[in-house]
Write a structure and sequence with these properties.
Order of helices and strands: HEEHEEEHEHHHEHEEEHEEEHEEHEHEH
Helix content: 25-40%
Largest sheet: 9 strands, mixed
Shape: globular
Number of helices: 12
Distance between the termini: 14 Å
Number of strands: 17
Strand content: 15-25%
């Protein structure tokens, strides 16, 4: 079985952590100077172990194995959320590098903007499978400051570079190692999670039209307060959704904005961003029906009209059975009785790569379940253990 150099793997993770360091985490927004420094640092590490490194016009860093196949693809992303954790994404790329260093025929990928700093998100993994049209690049803007994606690419030195696509038939499958970003493994005292599939995320906008008016001169009986209607509607959704959801469904109100947003003005409009997630499409359909029913009931009760608009509907991505079986066997060898199968509640690059090849994921425990925060962390012994589990599973799958 391939032997991971755990010391070097952990050293790579900690060297990368210093680029864009923020408290105990990192701040490397997509295409920022820190992000680009990390991408060029990664290319140097790839070259050191004999991979052929490149960076393309969307920012994907790719280390191509020079030897014979069959090949695997492995990786994740290395940009971060704002003022966030040091392992999210970076762990998967450094684990892929460790697999290649151990002699496995692995192409290593660091995809651009999995974190969604730009509208659309998953720019790199969508681009590399041919699912990112030029028109989407033209439309996309930074969610942080509104900078057009084209301008950001030019400032990062990527304008004019071609965008690469995966070579058909080159890869037998894609492995991605990631922190859990939840508490299931830690609470159960487990050290590894074999992912069964990646959830779909269905995104919605709810707009509520009221009447902007004076906060003192307009009686309560006369008001059409879009803010209050928004609060009551969201409370109804939270009350009704458990009747439609599954055991691992989640729903989130990510933004509530009222206009004009002044203390002495009755809000004339409310804008809500809402999403729900599950791995099962019939469950998602039930949740959508519940959401629509709540909006309909709100419009029956309230003086302000709510309008529901779908923004996006991704598809669940089930993991490959043979790859999961290889991870099961390896996890039981290295952590007997201390692993489980589990779904991923977060989105990952693997869900796009799954459109063109078999994929699988391996989770490490997250201390306290913390992620997307600078306090995110995992025990070093768990990081090293899971990297070895991944390496053995990769070899088993290649031979199968």
């Amino acid at each position: 079985m391939p032997q991971i150099d755990a010391d070097r793997f952990l050293r790579d993770l900690n060297e990368l952590r210093r680029i864009g360091a923020y408290k105990t985490g990192v701040h490397r927004p997509t295409y920022s100077p820190e992000d680009m420094e990390s991408r060029h640092w990664l290319m140097e590490r790839m070259a050191e172990i004999g991979l052929e490194p490149s960076i393309d016009g969307i920012g994907n860093v790719y280390g191509r194995h020079r030897g014979p196949g069959p090949h695997l693809l492995a990786g994740s992303h290395i940009e971060s959320q704002n003022q966030a954790g040091w392992l999210d994404g970076a762990l998967g790329v450094m684990a892929a590098l460790a697999l290649a260093r151990a002699g496995l025929p692995v192409d290593v990928a660091a995809f651009a903007d999995e974190e969604g700093h730009f509208e659309g998100g998953f720019l790199g993994s969508k681009s590399i499978i041919g699912a990112l049209p030029e028109e989407e690049i033209d439309r996309s803007r930074s969610r942080n400051d509104g900078t057009p994606l084209r301008e950001a690419l030019a400032a990062a030195g990527l304008a004019g570079k071609p965008r690469m696509q995966l070579e058909p038939g080159r890869h037998k499958g894609f492995f991605e190692m990631h922190i859990e970003q939840g508490t299931q493994l830690e609470k159960a005292g487990l050290r590894a999670g074999v992912v069964t599939g990646i959830v779909a995320i269905w995104q919605w906008r709810i707009t509520i039209a009221g009447m902007q008016d004076h906060a003192g001169g307009t009686t309560m009986a006369e008001r059409r307060d879009a803010g209050l209607t928004a609060v009551r509607l969201l409370s109804m959704i939270d009350q009704e959704m458990p009747k439609a959801c599954g055991t691992r469904s989640t729903w989130t109100t990510g933004r509530i904005a009222v206009e004009p947003g002044a203390p002495s003005i009755i809000p004339g409009r409310a804008d809500i961003l809402f999403q729900f997630r599950d791995i099962d499409v019939p469950t998602l359909d039930r949740m959508e029906a519940c959401l629509r029913a709540c909006v309909q009931e709100s419009n029956r009760r309230e003086r302000c009209e709510a309008t529901l608009t779908n923004i996006s509907k991704s598809l669940p991505a089930p993991c490959d059975t043979a790859m999961m079986a290889a991870l099961d066997t390896s996890a039981e060898r290295h952590a007997p009785g201390l692993w489980q199968r589990m779904p991923s509640g977060a989105g990952h690059d693997a869900q796009y790569i799954a459109r063109v090849m078999p994929v699988s994921m391996l989770f490490t425990p997250s201390i306290g379940g913390i992620s997307h925060h600078w306090a995110e962390d995992t025990k070093e012994e768990d990081l090293a253990l899971c990297c070895q589990i991944l390496a053995d599973a990769a070899e088993t799958y290649l031979k199968g």
